[in-house]
Design a protein that fits this description.
Helices cover 0% and strands 50% of the residues. The protein is an all-beta fold. The radius of gyration is 13 Å and the shape is globular.
Length: 126
């Protein structure tokens, strides 16, 4: 069992950087894959990035490679999503999710993640 808590969202301007954090309020990430998803108004939830906590393998949505970086801090039991050169189309609620399956290659389907945080709003102004 794990409970997730996101933080770091807010209102930023296009071109700025923002770092989101995902911590475990209950449990640890030791054997999980941790992913970030986002959902904009009127759109489906989409995969952003994910990381295998134990081995550090990462996976990104093709459209976000080079601008977003996922990382982990073992000492803080926290996963980060560094967002650079943000655009208005990055505006969405960003969710942290955990997958208990020991996948070396992180899953990209929301269906594969059994635990979800409440989400944090990111708004990018033009």
């Amino acid at each position: 069992q794990v409970q997730l808590a996101e933080s770091g969202g807010g209102l930023v301007q296009a071109g700025d950087s923002l770092r989101l954090s995902c911590g475990a309020s209950v449990g640890t990430f030791d054997t999980f894959v941790i992913g970030w998803f986002r959902q904009a108004p009127g759109k489906e939830r989409e995969f952003v990035a994910a990381i295998n906590w134990r081995v550090g393998n990462t996976r990104y949505a093709d459209s976000l490679k080079g601008r977003f970086t996922i990382s982990r801090d073992n000492t803080k039991n926290t996963v980060y999503l560094q967002m650079n050169s943000v655009k208005p189309e990055d505006t969405a609620v960003y969710y942290c999710a955990a997958d208990r399956s020991p996948r070396i290659v992180p899953a990209i389907r929301a269906y594969d993640y059994g635990y979800w945080g409440q989400g944090t709003q990111v708004t990018v102004s033009a």
